[in-house]
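Q: Structure tokens for this one, please.
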Amino acid sequence: MASTPAAAVPLKTIHALLGRRDEPTDGVVDYCNFLRATLAQRGVHLDILQVPWTDHGWPGALRSLQDASAAWRGQWALVQYTALAWSRRGFPLNVLRVARILQKQGVRLGVVFHDAVSLTSPRLRDRVRLRVQHITMRNLYDRAERSILTVPPESIEWLPANPVRAAYIPIGANIPEYIAERPAKSDQIPTVAIFSITGGESQRTEVQDIAAIAKHTKNKLGAVRLEVFGRGCLEARISLESALQGSGAALRLRGLLPAEEITRTLAASDALLNVRGQTTSRRGTAIAGIACGLPVIGYGEPGSDPAIDAAGVCLAPWRDPDKLADLLVRVLSDSALRRELHQRSLSAQANFFSWSAVADRYVKALDLAGAAP
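A: Here is the predicted structure, written as tokens:
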């Protein structure tokens, strides 16, 4: 079992258990690394371990977990849950075996649900897969002493009516926080950042939305620049360039960027457009925009997520690109509104999405107060 070394013996140790790594980037690994650095300032060591079921198969991986966790009695172990981290095709039943081993070892079981909410699909296989995931997550919740939810519990249909063992902790941005003054622009052309495009079947819909919004914005405001980067962008190059033909929008495609460059790119933009699913407090690409003080325009339901409602976020109904385009035009054309949204994003970053705020919520949720000297 792979483990990251600790520089010194800490006062308290928490074990974060990862499943299969995502490629080419892994937001859950980044999440754990940022959280570890901030918890260390509070006298808590987050030990990050991978359960290597993809390398050694489930029997070997579970034996390794049993050996490693023999010394964890009375300590917290936080299973980092996404369906694909614990299965190849989204049927993550083996994660329940992980939970049983930890409980038998006397470990304090916690689960961090990184994708507790999924969109429905008309396909029978997808509906069956979603049902299995809901059963698995409810079983994990029932077993765990504490569950960490990255979205409000009211939005999660498989939870019990009164989830008393759950704590709502929005995620932090997996990039450095931008704390300086926003850089001066060399021109007056509005720049709209688009951070990542989903692959597979969703790519076509997202590209169509981006193109429709860009054309509408160009017609209303004149020249506009799209700064597109992150996962899936280069793979969508051909379809995106084709969809934007004749729009008059300037397109810059950059692919994967180092974390520091993502921060600089967002800080130099006027707004972040998010068409990748719902804009919630678990959507890392949207949180990155908030961390940089940007107005964020995306799909979502106002009033359903207090952390998002507090930020400079403008939400349109799901898959309504016309409404999203109207919101973007309003934000880009109204400097006073942009300043207001900028301040709201900075405030929400400090109160909800900064790693300091995230770590403080973990200390409270896991009753770690007094861990620091």
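A few notes: Residues 215 and 369 are 53 Å apart (CA to CA). Residues 191-353 form a domain with the Rossmann fold fold (CATH 3.40.50.2000).
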